[in-house]
Specification:
Elements (H helix, E strand, L loop, with lengths): L1 H23 L15 H109 L6 H28 L1
Helix pairs in contact: 1-2, 2-3
């Protein structure tokens, strides 16, 4: 389109230069007998034809420019619509990807929570096993002390064993309560 406009512009300028040379008498056409202007007034009168011709060309070129701009505007609008459609598709695609990532993240969080629960249960079981073994150990110590029946030196040891046994039994009950919460 730009090439067409450039060709039309060169054509109009060429006609204008040709008419200017013709009206000044530089170009002589044998079939047309025109007298050369003798004064600027007669030259001015002879160029009114050229003025009318050029003004009509300028109006035609203005109309062509308006039509070309309208066509370019339509093309631009359709390109923008296509771009908007592509952006909408891209946005939908990104939303799907984000939704799947969110689902995976939620699944991972759930897994981590389950793993933390399993770890906590293992810890509680280990504590429970330790406290049970300590209660058994305290029972055996207390049985040995009862058999020997020596209360003078071992009285403090006996009381400490009973106190520790009570602490471990309380710890066992607390652990059992906490493990019941997981089930």
């Amino acid at each position: 389109m730009r090439l067409l406009i450039a060709i039309i512009a060169l054509f109009v300028i060429g006609i204008w230069v040709f008419l200017a040379y013709f009206l000044m008498g530089e170009i002589n056409i044998p079939h047309i007998s025109l007298a050369l202007p003798k004064s600027t007034e007669s030259f001015s009168n002879s160029t009114t034809f050229l003025t009318g011709l050029l003004s009509s060309f300028s109006v035609i070129l203005g109309l062509i420019a308006v039509l070309l701009q309208g066509k370019e505007l339509k093309e631009s609008t359709s390109a923008q619509r296509a771009q908007a459609t592509a952006l909408e598709k891209q946005s939908e695609s990104q939303q799907k990807v984000l939704a799947s990532q969110l689902d995976r993240s939620e699944a991972m969080v759930k897994q981590l929570e389950q793993q933390a629960t399993a770890n906590r249960i293992l810890i509680l079981q280990a504590k429970q096993q330790y406290d049970s073994s300590e209660v058994s150990r305290m029972d055996s110590i207390l049985n040995q002390l009862k058999v020997k029946d020596i209360k003078t030196t071992n009285n403090l040891l006996f009381e400490n064993c009973v106190a520790k046994k009570k602490v471990h039994i309380k710890s066992l009950k607390d652990i059992q309560n906490e493990m019941d919460k997981f089930q």
